[in-house]
Task: structure prediction
Amino acid sequence: MPKKLKRGLLYCGAILLLLAFIVNNAVKDDIQEIEKALHSLNQPISQILYTKLLDRNQAIVFYESSSVGIESFGNARFKKNIFGWRLVGASSGQNPEGYKFSWSFSDLTFDFSGYTDLLSGKFFVADIKEVRIVTKNEVEYHAEIIEYNNSKKYWFVISEGEELLGSTITALSQDGKIIEPLIE
Result:
């Protein structure tokens, strides 16, 4: 067999393998792959609440966990490369007792390009309808609120360039009244 023909067949084979790899990765359901990667960590995750795809190759998974009777709320951050989704960072916190809502902060600059900070938390009372965040620079955000299990809710805000640490977080009821963080 001539050298040019061998080389041509070798190139065609390599191109076909590359195309098969690309098609295989393109048709996979990203959310299922991310959740599979999260479960492979063998952490005591009770329930995955929501997966926020930030773009084609960055995502945040919000989850609840329970271990030894202690309930927590957290997030895991994932990036996609040619081999699939991989964990790049995570944080969680114990659900505080006696509070109406919680909040936590994650610095995204180490894990993601284009995203700066994440504020998130859970509601422990039903009457919270809105969460406003006002940064030190007077930039106002309205949190995305996710309902799950028919009555439970949590919230989050992701910034792109704006620092959220040190912001004022205000929870509001349906009629616009401020919800105090502590239960009296």
Summary: The chain has two helices and twelve strands.
